[in-house]
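Hey L., structure's done. Input below.
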Amino acid sequence: MYNTSKVVFSPRVRKSPYFNSTIKYGATAFSVYNHMYMPVTYDGTVEDYKKLLNGVQLWDVGVERQVQIKGPEAEAFAQFLTPRDIKKCSIGQAMYTPLTDFKGNLINDPVMLKIDKDCYWFSVSDGDLLLWAQGIAAGYKFDVDVDEPDVSPLQVQGPNSTKLMIKVFGDWVNDISFYRFKEIEHKGIPLVVARMGYSKELCYELFLQDHSKGDELWEILWQAGQEFNISPGSPNIILRLEGGILSYLADIDRTNNPYEVGLDWVVDLDQEDDFIGKDALRELSVKSPKRKLVGAEIHGDPLTIFNAEHWPVLINNKRVGSMNAMVYSPRLNKNICYTILDIEHAKSGQEIIISGPDCELKATTVDLPWLGRAK
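Output:
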């Protein structure tokens, strides 16, 4: 279980359209993400994880706010924000599009949805990307409007998710391929239905476009899901680490560049268009990174603790990096974690010591990920 104290709800922190439903169905701990309350557990991290693997779950991820870019120069501006070549993206398609600053370091890692030829959504991780994008647009005089639309995602995850989606929305759900989406209206509820989500399990993301309909959408799915072993859930650290999925500000932050954390594949230096950080990334691309993100397996009994801070990693009593996230995986029967290590030690099979406040844990580095995507 997470080590938590009481969270006092107030008008100062925003609530998602599904907030009342998460309370109704038993959320027991919250975090604050993008200035909003985010449920992080119901029956406990392991129990929530097991329920997902044996049914279907609803996750309130309304904290994934959208930065909308709209106008005559929407494509040019969206491209200026990311090193990935978005010209390959078609209407109705989504792309993972990490963003870098002028030094080539990561400032967010959103998923971009191409809504129309002149309209893009960036579904952002924790961070004030809206202010960054508005400042860049104004400073470089792009002919675009940059704002936050009334759009709040709800994720449907688990092996029974397709059955639930077909029951509620129809057989056309089978036609949505990975990282594609379709805009619909269901019983007066405007939605963008996307085949993607924050785990490598079978998953969908419903982008609600009317804040007032959140609890109604939740109940439609909840009642239809009774025969599919439905439960409430949240972004689960076990699922995330098993699949090698990164969490911005937890695993990576603005001190990291794409080459250090396995995101070099999103950097397209050959494209003609300029983008923020292009010159810096070109320089970084010809150098060996000073450190690298790798997985590690921690020896011993199943972990029952989480790290509230990054813990030092030692070799021969010398600090060589940090351990950023750790958890016990029941289906792997292993304690797994992410580490960022000095490059000379960032190789599979390296023995390390993770130095916690009250413990020292022996571990061995491994390649990522542990599990591939569910089909």
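The mean pLDDT is 96. The CA atoms of residues 193 and 206 lie 5 Å apart.

-- N.
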